[in-house]
Amino acid sequence: MLRRFAWALSPAALLFALTGPAEAGYTIKSTFNTDAEGWTVVGGSGLSVGYNATGGNPGGYISVTDTIGGTQPWYWSAPDKFLGSMNNFAGGTLSFDLRQHLQPGESVNQYDASDVVLKGGGLTLVHEVHLNPAMDGTWTHYGVDLSEVGWHIGTEAGIAATAADMTQVLSSLTRLGIRGEYQNGPNIGDLDNVVMHNTPEPPSLALMGLGAAGLAGYGWWRRRAGAVPHRLVPA
Questions:
Q1: Dist. CA 134–CA 214, nearest whole Å
Q2: CB count, 10 Å around CB of 221?
Q3: Does 49 reside within a domain?
Q4: 3-class SS at 54?
Q5: What residue numbers bound the domain in which 196 lies?
Q6: Strands of 151-153's sheet, edge to edge?
Q7: To the nearest 5 percent, what fractions of the chain are helix, strand and coil?
Q8: Which of 15, 70, 93, 139 has the highest local Cβ count within 10 Å?
Q9: How far apart are the first and last CA of the chain?
């Protein structure tokens, strides 16, 4: 199946893409092939996670149906296996697949917010990837570098995170949130293939080139579509 890709890679991740891994890494993942694996939803009102055995990328996936919507997004909240002492994953990658659907009769009304939230050690770090999931039935794949690059403290307008900040958060991670809502209005969000790996995910050079061009074009489209400013993430 054709997928779109979004990357947020540090220089170390770029070097890994060119040279390949030096050794096998540690991986924690949710592929949702049998159940929802303990994932929940934070934010919104009266929302719950539904499991779907087919239609994922591939296999099963989870989804949330929001019949109200709004500009304070709901987030997928990771289960315990992604939390705790995660120092081994500093400098690695968090990857996942997202898809969104509009409810019948709804027009496109997308908005900006933090896309990934890490909380732990008395800090909250947020990251925005600047690419919303596809609305054409296909999956969008995301790879976010777990270094300080692109992360901010508290909100996207906050102070840029340092390597020490990332280490502090990962040393006692209490929350991993992935944004599930991008539409100001009723919507459905889907999630599949969440993987935390302690080495950067290696995209091909061709893919990285296409991704750079695609991000530029999609950023223009989002602003044409009337995306609204950044929103605070749920506590």
A1: 13
A2: 12
A3: yes
A4: coil
A5: 4-224
A6: 40-42, 75-77, 173-179, 116-120, 123-127, 151-153
A7: 20, 30, 50
A8: 93
A9: 35
